[in-house]
Design goal:
The chain is mainly beta. It has a single domain, classed as SET domain (Beta-clip-like, Beta Complex). The chain has 2 helices and 9 strands. The strands form 3 sheets. A 5-stranded antiparallel β-sheet has the order 4-5-3-8-7. Strands 1-2 form a two-stranded antiparallel sheet. About 25% of the residues are buried.
Length: about 110
């Protein structure tokens, strides 16, 4: 793990790198259907599959319309992948993309 929880200009707290992440490097597990790995259950109708945020990365990674990451899904695990992130940069993701991947309805207009 090469990231840490710090104060964020986006939304109170965020995940920041402690090292550089080159493009297409896996940062870590973001959400999963495995409750043993998860910290918070995601549920909104009509979600049928139980998804969980994973650790700090899933819980505190803030939304951006221009994120520095993308997602990779392997079975029922979704990983966060770097688009090229500098040291000490906040790690951001596009909540719209992951919400489509897991069928979790989300209104990201409140994050802009």
């Amino acid at each position: 793990m090469s990231y840490e929880l710090k104060e964020s200009k986006i939304n109170k707290q965020g995940i920041f790198t402690t090292t550089q992440y080159p493009k297409n490097i896996e940062i870590g597990l973001y959400v999963s259907t495995s409750c043993e790995k998860g910290v918070r259950y995601l549920f909104k109708p009509p979600v049928e599959t139980q998804w969980y945020e994973i650790g700090m990365l899933g819980r505190y990674c803030n939304h951006s319309d221009n994120p520095n990451t993308h997602f990779s899904r392997i079975d029922n695990d979704i990983f966060l992948i770097s688009n090229g992130i500098s040291e000490n940069e906040e790690i951001t993701s596009d909540y719209n993309i992951v919400s489509e991947m897991i069928n979790f309805p989300m209104d990201t207009t409140k994050f802009n």
